[in-house]
Design a protein that fits this description.
This protein has 342 residues and is of the alpha/beta class. Helix 4 runs parallel beside helix 5. Strand 1, helix 1 and strand 2 form a beta-alpha-beta unit. It has one domain: NAD(P)-binding Rossmann-like Domain (Rossmann fold, 3-Layer(aba) Sandwich). The strands form four sheets. Strands 3-2-1-4-5-7-11 form a seven-stranded parallel β-sheet, sandwiched between helices. The protein has a three-stranded mixed β-sheet with strand order 8-10-12. The radius of gyration is 20 Å and the shape is globular. The protein contains twelve helices and 14 strands. Belongs to the NAD(P)-dependent epimerase/dehydratase family. Dihydroflavonol-4-reductase subfamily. This is NAD-dependent epimerase/dehydratase family protein. One of its GO terms (molecular function) is oxidoreductase activity, acting on the CH-OH group of donors, NAD or NADP as acceptor. Keywords: Oxidoreductase. It comes from Paenibacillus agri.
């Protein structure tokens, strides 16, 4: 990657995408193009990163993509195609398949795009496993999108999308031999670069509800962005899938950390009513009669802290990760700051 190469960030207003744009700007790259859907968010981000060129463009639609991709060499894909009329997650998956294939074909048609780093998710790797004894997962594993009873059906569409991307890359349609690398973030946390994101801390812990304690793997959003860039610059990463994971924790550990560092008023301002966490072993006992279900086989080993993510590519982790206490505290501080400004 040369500093004057044209770089495209699809989904630049997103949680990771905005940080990718910020980091590339700080590194001195001068031809950064970002795509967006929301005009107001794009205007605000452009005021923060005036050197980035913004285009409204949706995956799955043709408008503006010629201008976006013309002359580009490197593409970071943080987006997915979306159709509000999709009724099922299989429908959503088919929409995402169409969108990613269209993007890859347009990239081939430019004759200039060399590589795409596509942000997928851990949910395309480590779920819907039918072997109840399997607790170690690597990037060689795939979520079975056809298994019934998945606790989070977003896994279906994301897995279908990623499989479609790899199918295109390995097919004769890839006439210019574009390289693809995928990154699979675990729970993404940390301060948002822009004020409209609440990170996974909010998603996991807010709400007046009961939830089972469980292990979780996490990564700071700034590290996820840095890893996107590191993978783009590494020829050794071409053709590979990569976990983006920095630490292993539990929901109760994160909540205890928050309670030690913030007042009740601050916590309520960010999270509202905080979820009540049930010990994982107790929840696992209650779920015993459901042992044959996908939900049980996916979640109970996590409640009992037995699942291990083991990367096949430790060389991709070439920089120092932000430690979890810093990630959580700075995320809360940023969400409080954004609340006060709002």
């Amino acid at each position: 990657m040369e500093l004057n190469d044209k770089i495209v960030i699809i989904g630049v207003t997103g949680y990771i995408g905005a940080w990718v744009a910020k980091k590339l700007t700080d590194m001195g790259y001068t031809q950064i193009v970002g795509t967006y859907r929301n005009e107001a968010k794009a205007r605000q981000l452009q005021s923060m990163l005036p050197n980035v060129n913004f285009y409204k463009a949706n995956l799955g639609e043709t408008e503006n993509w010629h201008e976006v991709l013309n002359g580009a060499k490197w593409v970071f894909n943080q987006g997915s195609a979306y159709n509000p009329n999709d009724r099922t997650f299989k429908d959503r998956g088919r929409t995402k398949e169409k969108g990613i294939r269209m993007l890859l074909q347009m990239a081939v048609d430019t004759g200039t795009v060399k590589k795409i780093v596509h942000t997928s998710a851990e949910s395309t790797i480590a779920y819907a496993n039918e072997n109840a004894d399997k607790t170690i997962f690597t990037e060689d594993d795939w979520t079975n999108e056809d298994r019934e009873g998945l606790f989070d059906l977003h896994m279906v569409s994301k897995t279908m999308e990623e499989k479609a991307a790899w199918s295109f890359i390995h097919s004769p349609e890839n006439t210019t031999n574009i390289s693809l690398t995928t990154i699979h973030p675990t729970h993404v946390m940390g301060p948002s670069f822009v004020p409209w994101h609440n990170d996974m801390i909010y998603a996991m812990l807010h709400g007046d509800r009961a939830m089972a304690d469980s292990q979780l793997y996490g990564v700071d959003v700034r590290d996820a962005a840095a890893m996107n860039i590191a993978l783009m610059k590494s020829a050794a990463a071409d053709g590979k899938r990569h976990f983006a994971s920095a630490f292993k924790s539990t929901y109760s550990t994160l909540l205890d950390l928050i309670k030690k560092n913030f007042t009740d008023e601050q916590i309520e301002a960010v999270l509202g009513h905080v979820a009540r966490i049930i010990p994982g072993a107790d929840a696992a006992d209650v779920l015993g009669p459901c042992h044959a279900t996908s939900y049980y086989q996916d979640m109970v080993p996590r409640m009992l802290n037995r699942v291990v993510y083991k990367t096949n590519h430790p060389e991709a982790y070439a920089y120092e990760y932000t430690e979890p206490n810093t990630t959580v505290i700075q995320a809360m501080e940023k969400m409080l700051q954004d609340k006060n400004k709002g």
